[in-house]
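User: Hi! I'm working on a homework problem where we have to compare a predicted structure to a textbook description. Could you give me the structure for the chain below?
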Amino acid sequence: MKRKRKWEVTKEEEIPLEKGDSLSIAELDLLCELAGKVHPRCAVMEIANQAYESTEALARGVQPVGTGVFNLSLYGRNQSSKTAGRDSDGFENRTTGVEKASGVTFSDGSVYDLSRRRRETIGLLLVIGYQYYEEVREAVVCWQGLLVPETVIIIHNCHEPGPARAIREFITDGGNFVLQQSIDNMAVLVMDRCQHYWAINSNEVGICRNCGRKRNFGRLNREIASLGIRKRTSHRMK
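Assistant: Happy to help. Predicted C-alpha cells:
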C-alpha cells in the first residue's frame, strides 16, 4: 500500500519538478514535521537555487502556527532557471504562483547580503540543492547570528562529499552544532547546548573545560573577515 504524505497536495497545487529534484516521502514528512514545531515568532529559511518540493512541504508544516517561509536563492532566479533549461519568465511565473498559494516569500542575492537584510529570528534553516562544500558552509556561517538555541538546521545532499565535509566541521571544531539525526539524504543539526568554558591555546584553538569540545577560533575569525572583504569588494565593483 502506497504511503500517503502528511501534507498531501492536490494535482493543481503540485510544484513541477525537474528530473532528479524529487525528495523521498520520509524527507518531505521530516520537513513538514520540523517546520510545524518552529516557534510562531521565528521564521523558516530555505536556502535553495529554485523552488523545490521541499518549499511546499515547509509551507504546509507551518500553516497551523502561522510562521513565515522564505525561499532564498543564492544564484538569482534568472540564472537558476537558465541552468535548469527553463526561460526566465516561466520560472518567475511558477514561483509567483507558489508564493500566492502557500504564503512563501521569494528573494535572491548573495548569501552575505541576504543574511544582513533579514531581521527575523530563524527557527529552521534548510540548505538544499547545493553540492559544493563552500556553498553549504557559507550558507550556514552567514546566518549564525540569527539562530536561537532551538534552531534546527537541515542540510540536503548530506552524503555528497562537499556537504558531508561541511557537516563534519559543523559538529567538530568548526561549528557549534551536534548531529541529531539523518534521514535518507538529509542531516538534521541542532545547537550545542553546553555552556562552554573555553581554554584557548596559542594556535587559537579552544577546548571546553565542561564538555571537551574543540573550537578553531582562528579559522572562524578568518572566515568572518573574508566575508566582510568580499562584501566590500562587491560594492566597489558595482
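For your comparison, note the following. The longest strand covers residues 147-156. The first helix runs from residue 25 to 35. Good luck with the assignment!
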